[in-house]
Amino acid sequence: MKRMAKTDLTLEAILSAIADGATSLTAVSKALGLSKGSVSGSTAKAIRKLLPDIDKLLTDNKKTQGGTEAGKAKAAKVSKKAAKDKPAKVSKAKVKPVPQKAGKWARDPRNPFREGAYGTCFDILAAPAHKDGLLKDKLIQLLGEATGKDAKHAGYDAQVLLSAHPNDNGLSNNDSPRHRSCRPGFFVMRTNGHVQLMVDKT
Fold first, then answer.
1. Among the listed residues 200, 135, 137, 134, the one whose alpha carbon sits nearest the alpha carbon of residue 166
2. Is 80 exceeded by the pLDDT of residue 167?
């Protein structure tokens, strides 16, 4: 095995030395022109950092007498696999969050809520498929799927909108008594477990 002129310590250079039959860290260091005698501790540490499983590759070279053509071929094959399997360095740069895609439920132009759980709940109630209403349990299920919340918390959000009962004093149902977080502009008809979005014409 010829000793190369001094070269940069890279993964490719280390693998090349192993493919040429190096059977020890000292041999690798000499092949790269980094030392004339025993490999220094700092160089050995740097080599292991670049190729953590180098000891196994060097052992394989010893078993196959790496100086032979067969040994070189096997070392090259193993080295290529090690380079392929070596995990890529993870950048320390902050990863920008991927913007969420638009939800399944189209935004209803009458929706008085900002985007969020309440707004999504309104859009589910206002969907054309639910113009005749839907079961309260189904509403909670769909809201939970759309917001990623469990049934308990999705139920809390739905209950805010469902608090908009119709007025019983002849005034506009759009502004009937309701939960303080529930905005005016609609009301909900409730029949047993069935709920339906309603909007009084003004």
1. 200
2. yes
The answer to pTM > 0.85 is no
Residue ranges in 105-191 assigned as alpha helix (H) = 117-126, 136-147, 151-162
Distance CA 37, CA 153 (A): 69
Beta strands, E only, 2-125: none
d(CA 123, CA 81): 53
- Asked if residue 34 lies in contact with residue 50, where contact means CB atoms within 8 angstroms, the answer is no
Sheet holding 194-198, edge to edge: 134-135, 194-198, 187-191
Q: How far apart are CA 161 and CA 125, in angstroms?
A: 10
Q: How far is CA 54 from the centre of its chain?
A: 32
pLDDT score of 48: 83
Rounded mean pLDDT, 129-156 = 95
Cα separation values, 195 from 71, 137, 172, 173, 201, Å = 76, 10, 19, 15, 19
DSSP 175: G
Domain extents in the chain: 11-85, 117-198
